[in-house]
Amino acid sequence: MQYDFDNIIDRSGTCSIKYEPVWRGRPADILPLWVADMDFAAPPCVQEALIQRAHHGIFGYSEPDAAYFSAVQGWFDWRPEREWLTITPGVVNAVCIAIRAYTEQGDGIVIQQPVYHPFESSIRITGRRLLVNELILRDGRYSIDFDDFEDKIRQAKLFILCNPHNPVGRVWNRDELMRMGEICLRHGVIVIADEIHQDFIFPGHRHLVFAALGHDFAAITVTTTSPSKTFNLAGLLHANIFISDAILRTKFNDEYTKSGLSQPGIMGMIACQAAYTHGAAWLAELLDYIAQNMLFLKTYLAERIPAIKMIEPEGTYLAWLDFRGTGIPPHKLDETLTRGAKLWLNAGRSFGKGGEGFARMNVACPRAVLQGALTRLANVDWENAEF
After folding, report:
1. 207, 315 in Cβ contact below 8 A?
2. pLDDT at 240
3. Threshold 0.85, pTM exceeds
4. b vs e for 193-204, b when ≥16 Cβ sit within 10 Å of the residue's Cβ?
5. What are phi and psi of 358, to 5 degrees?
6. DSSP alpha helices (H): ranges in the chain?
7. Does 2 reside within a domain?
8. Do 261 and 364 share a structural domain?
9. Are residues 272 and 285 in the same domain?
10. At which of 246, 263, 278 does a domain end?
11. Total number of domains constituting the chain
12. 283-332: per-residue pLDDT in tens?
């Protein structure tokens, strides 16, 4: 391999929320595999582009030019138009803007739990009504309860789609996306499509852009993307939001303006353009490394800790682990992981309904780090754990 993903980089003292456990009440010796933040350096092409711009020395107000949009458009397997694009500091920021732009206080918003927890918090802090279409886990795979989905959509103004789904790892197929889209069209519901993990797809699966499935779908959709997960650039606060419908786009941009933000940060644009122009080879090796990490995790659990089951992921670099077979009460799981395994994972309950007894593990780390985490899990006396 051309790129060294086995290299362990010391991230202490870098203001990383992932590696400052005391900031969040965790013990100093805990191993963090929680937040979706990779332990790999950004690709050399990104580092070099940022260094070159830093040497220029002027960091004034900036707007994306034609070369930037060409790089962004060329990255995707669909053809968004330039006028559809708004750059925001992040996907969650865009979700909150869309909620305020398209709904009023008390309006219903549908999410599919267990799901990325800022969806629920964004709904609650804006005074909207949470409607949960809980995913169904059967034989180790999640699916959608479409009868319940349509019942919830009837009560809603907005639906937040997560594809690939974080944390359960589903990459929704064409039939599933079409069925959800037709239900939303039938009831006049707008869709926010969070597709931030779209570059992390495992063999045998294909990510389909929801808005690209048809003009009618595009007309009701806000598509949120970012290079932040793919190239580990979250700290640069940069996301590309696409809205083809002129009315929806105007409402979104008007609400965005009310937030007091205008031009995007120059370094985020520089990093995004470099990544999308020159980062494909790096990403191809990264995807292979992550796939091998997932296989390592699955094999280790099956051989050493069979009470813990991994839900087979179709996408993302996040493993959804089922601890219910250990006998640990769900409300004690996070404490057991923290004090017994000295391991920091995302508690499943934070993802909402259906998350109890689960935890999310970030496997985008050097293999030795992952092996160390699994050794800590194996050393827990699950039958007699009392914390």
Report:
1. yes
2. 98
3. yes
4. bbbbbbbbbbee
5. -115, 165
6. 44-56, 66-75, 91-102, 118-125, 146-154, 174-186, 215-218, 228-231, 246-258, 266-278, 280-304, 330-335, 367-378
7. no
8. no
9. no
10. 278
11. 2
12. 999 999 999 999 999 999 999 999 999 999 999 999 999 999 999 999 99
Spatial distance between the Cα atoms of 311 and 354, rounded to a whole number of angstroms? 13
Residues 220 and 365 in one domain: no
Please determine, for residue 99, whether its predicted confidence score (pLDDT) is greater than 90. yes
Instruction: Assess whether pLDDT exceeds 80 at residue 250.
Output: yes
Contact (Cβ atoms closer than 8 angstroms) between residue 167 and residue 178: no
Look up residue 136 and give its amino acid. Answer: I
The gap from C-alpha 321 to its chain's centroid, in whole angstroms, comes to 17
* Residue 234: C-alpha distances to residues 43, 369, 376 (Å): 14, 21, 28
* Neighbouring residues of 344: CB distance < 8 A, sequence distance ≥ 6: 21, 26, 30, 31, 32, 33, 34, 337, 338
With b meaning 16 or more CB within 10 Å and e meaning fewer, what string describes 293-319?
A: bbeebbebbeeebeebbbbebbbbbbb
In a domain, 49, yes or no: no
Nearest in space to 240 (alpha carbons), one of 64, 102, 44, 43: 64
d(CA 60, CA 49): 17
Closest Cα partner for 308 from 140, 77, 108? 140
pLDDT, mean of residues 201-228: 98
Cβ-count burial 32-59 (b if 16+ within 10 Å, e if not): bbbebbbbbebbebbeebbeebeeeeee
Does the pLDDT of residue 181 top 70, yes or no? yes
Radius of gyration of the chain (CA): 21
Sorted by sequence, the CB contacts under 8 Å of residue 260 that are 6+ apart come out as none
Looking at the fold, whether 67 and 101 belong to one and the same domain comes out as yes
Domain of 169?
58-278
The CA distances from residue 130 to 94, 110, 163, 308, in Å, are 18, 6, 19, 31
Task: Provide the token pair at 177.
Answer: 């996306």
Gap between the terminal Cα atoms of the chain: 43
Neighbouring C-alpha atoms within 13 Å toward the C-beta of 60: 2
Domain boundary among 243, 258, 278: 278
* Strand-pair partners of 358: 322
What's the token pair of residue 380? 């827990």
Q: Is the pLDDT of residue 236 over 90?
A: yes
**Cα–Cα distance, 273 to 238 (Å, whole number):** 11
**CA pair distance 40, 284, nearest whole angstrom:** 14
